[in-house]
Amino acid sequence: MTFKVERVARRVLLLLLLPLAACAGASRGPVTQGAFEPVSQLDLARFMGDWYVLAHIPTRPERDAFDALEQYTLREDGRIDIRFTFCRGAGDGPLETLEMLGWVHDRETNAEWRVRPFWPLRFGYEVLELAPDYSLTVIGHPSRRYAWIMARTTEIDEDALSGISARLAHAGFDIERLRRVPHSGGQCRAIPEGA
C-alpha cells in the first residue's frame, strides 16, 4: 500500500514539475530591435537587501500575491540567499514564503543570475534595468514570459511605470499580463508563521 502511494505521489510531482522545467529551458522569445539587455554592471553588495515587487508578469504561485517582498542576502561563497514572501489573496491573507538560492551566471556584469527554487529546477534571471541609486529595478526571465518591477519602497511614479511597461512591450514581454501588486502594509507579516 505504501509503495503504491509513493508511486502516485512521484507521478503527481512529475506532472507538476514538467511545465516548470519547460519554462526553465525556454529560449528567448521573439525580441524586437531595442530590446532590453541585462545592465552592463551590477554591484552585488549594493543590490542586496529588500525589494518590494510593485508590478509583475507573474509566475503561477504569485498570481494573487499582495505585499510581495524579495530579500537578497549575499553569502561568503558568493551565492545569494533569496527569500520571497507575500500575503496570499489579500493584505491579511496567509503569509507565503519561498526560499531560493541564486548565483551569478555572468561574472563580468553580475547582471545575469540563475535561481533555484528547489533542486533540480533553475531559472534564468536578468537585471534589465537599474536606477543609478539602486532604488528601482526591472528583472526579466530570458523567455520574456515573466518580469518583475521592484523598488526599495512600495511607491512608484506612474510615469516611470508607464515607461517601463512600454520598454517591456518593445522587448517582447506581454504587458497585457502585467499586474500591479497591491501593498497594504503587510498585515500578514504581523501574524507569526504557523499561527
| Structure summary, number of beta strands | 9
Q: Rough shape?
A: globular
What share of the residues does DSSP label as strand, in percent? 25-35%
What can be said about the biggest beta sheet?
8 strands, antiparallel, barrel
Portion of residues within helices: 10-25%
Low-pLDDT residue spans: 1-34
Task: Describe the structure in brief.
By secondary structure, the chain is an alpha+beta fold.
Overview of this protein structure:
The protein has 195 residues and is an alpha+beta fold. It has one domain: Calycin beta-barrel core domain (Lipocalin, Beta Barrel), CATH 2.40.128. 21% of the residues lie in helices and 32% in strands. The chain is globular. The relative contact order is 0.21. Mean pLDDT is 81; it is low at 1-34.
Set out the fold topology.
Elements: H1 2-24, H2 44-47, E1 49-57, E2 65-74, E3 80-88, E4 95-104, E5 112-116, E6 123-130, E7 136-140, E8 147-151, H3 158-170, E9 179-180
Keywords:
195 residues, alpha+beta, Lipocalin, 8-stranded antiparallel barrel
